[in-house]
Amino acid sequence: MTDNSAACGGPDVENGFGRFFLPGPTEVRPAVLAAQKRALIGHRGEPINALMREIQPGLRAVFGTARPVLVSTSSATGLMEAAVRNGARERVLSLVNGAFSERFARIARACGFEVDVVEAPWGGVHDPDAVRARLRAGHYDAVTMVHSETSTGALNPIADLAAAVREFPGTLVLVDAVTSAGGAPVQADDRGLDFVLAGSQKAMALPPGLAFGVASERMLERSASAARRGVYFDLVAFYNALAKEQTPNTPAVTLMYSLAEQLRHISAEGLERRWRRHAAMARRCADWADASGERIGAGLSVLAPDGFRSPTVTCLLLPPGRTGPEVAHAMKERGFVIGAGYGRLKPRSVRIGHMGDHTVEELDRVLEALEEVLRAPPGQGLAGGSR
Ligand SMILES: *Cc1c(COP(=O)(O)O)cnc(C)c1O
User: Fold this and answer.
1) Which of 68, 175, 197, 303 is exposed most, by the fewest CB atoms within 10 A?
2) Cα 358–chain centre separation
3) Which residues of the chain have pLDDT under 70?
4) Can you spell out the DSSP letters for 173-205?
5) Which atom of ligand 1 approaches the CA of 179 most closely?
6) Which atom of ligand 1 is nearest the CA belonging to 150?
7) Is 72 helix (H, G, I), strand (E, B) or coil?
8) How high is the pLDDT of residue 16?
């Protein structure tokens, strides 16, 4: 078994899988990690073509597309940048309802685009009618949105939002599906998403280092004349290389071995079952929180509203007197890794990443430990504040 633990303060190997519940990176099956040990191959020639061929059906299924899915050696943020560089000309509308959707807007601005923002409260989701109204009031080349907002645990109604944007012909739909792809239906083709991106280390339960994306035909047309598309994230170059079953530059080949292995596991489970397993974990987390008041005294609440909760990550608002870092630290002392809140939510919430290959049974053990932590007086081990 691979060691991702003791020395660096990670989960206890003795207890094996099922203790590492960060909302990314997520726990990786030993067999998937071990797949990286195969001998290297060059990035031109038949062996890489065979590997690229092998991973396509699984990736297309995850994204719900018949189109080729590109593999980028970068973290997901790289493909967020690719989305705006290739998909925008001048003006971008960013739907912001948390830290990652805010990052999307910041990237677009940093790339030189004129960015307007539609803001929804952190924890909330976007209203398609509000988006429609903004698009009626002025033209935008593209709209950025995050499907599963990992900082808040909210799941945007991506189908309805995309449908609203598609009423405006020149406006492309750019979607960050980083914590939904592999844990929830993305349905890129059916929903008319022009560019969808995800990273390897979230619901796909791979090591960090790869990102995946799928571009529509009109996204590629836009890209062909996009002045700021640059070199490393040039989607035209990616799709030209894909046609030859290659990548434009040297890919992280060993991570692609892991990807091929994990896609076999995903296919063996079946995507529908995988999505149901994630939905069941989210429901368990919410039910536990709803009942926690009776058992703990002061209860927790799920930040995102019912009906718009991510199946892969839950953000729990803590009772008064408890802080995210303090509770996460106390969990670590019990051998479980969960996330403190993100950004401005850090002081008063924790996040459980119930994604990838975790099960409801494993989650139950996390919730049991969390209940113990919350029953004990606060601040044991860490005085409420830093980290
Ligand atoms: C983790 C995450 C990202 C950033 O991914 P990196 O791989 O760290 O670049 C972007 N968007 C969402 C929704 C995420 O959860």
Assistant:
1) 68
2) 15
3) 1-16, 379-387
4) EEEE-TTTBTTB---TTTTT-SEEEEETTSTT-
5) 15
6) 15
7) strand
8) 60
